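Hi there, hope your week has been kind to you so far. Please have a think about how the structure follows from the sequence. I've dropped the whole record in just underneath, so have a look:

_____
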Amino acid sequence: MEGKEFLKKVEKEMEKCIVGKEDIIKLLLVSLLSRGHVVLEGIPGLAKTTIVKNFAKVFGLKFSRVQLTPDTMPSDIIGVYYYSEKTKDFEIKKGPIFTNILLADEINRTPPKTQSAMLESMQENQATIEGNSLKLPDPFILMATMNPLESEGVYALPEAQMDRFMFKIKLEYPKKNEEIEMLKKKYECSFETVCPVISHLDLENAFEKVNNVHITEEILHYIYDLVQKTRIDERFIYGASPRASEQFLYASRAVAYLNGRDYVLPDDVKEIAKYILRHKVKLKIDYEFEGMNNEDIIDEIISNTDIIN
């Protein structure tokens, strides 16, 4: 299956349960094909959970959801050893993190100790239960949600954890025609159940084709220039790390595949640039007072960075 057909098939199936959101669906697909983790930021009611849950169904992947709260413990996510009366021995009860796609709802509501437990899984694709490291299923993708409006009872995500998220995707209010269409479908009860339309073999083939997408040295220099400009911009306390460059490498090849090519163009890099960079830089407080934000400066950097032929 070619990349454009792959994308179209996923989008068509997702239309059964979602109106619009094609850009979000494509970004989630890029994250899956490049094995990158995602933060979905938006107020309640924007269908974040519905999108992620049904996205997993399209591929027949195992899906788990965790509603994170201030009293969530690492064992609630990772699992525990327990004594079995049946076997008269200690056994492992695996937690919801042993899945293909984990939806961590309101990740910033859980304390740092629990967040750090997820950090190992994000980076190493494994979870440690009482000293024993266990491999997670492949693929393993963490898709976390955050409410940008709440400040009470939330914990700031450590920079090390935010850096491991490939994309930060902001969900906005739907357009008028999309919301009207959604209401019609609700009224007519015409939303349908999503079915698996991408087989395990199809997904494995897509992974292989993404890995075979060619990227030139000029594009690598272009990626470096984008990342480097965030490091030297005086308006930022710090810029993007080399991990951002690595995520550009993986994600741009997935974008090229979905755009129907076996080679990366600068436009493929630009397509995902703001989603990779927006949460990997920190603005100096003086510039915040002047009304600036990360988004505007990142857009400026993208616009002013040209590829050298």
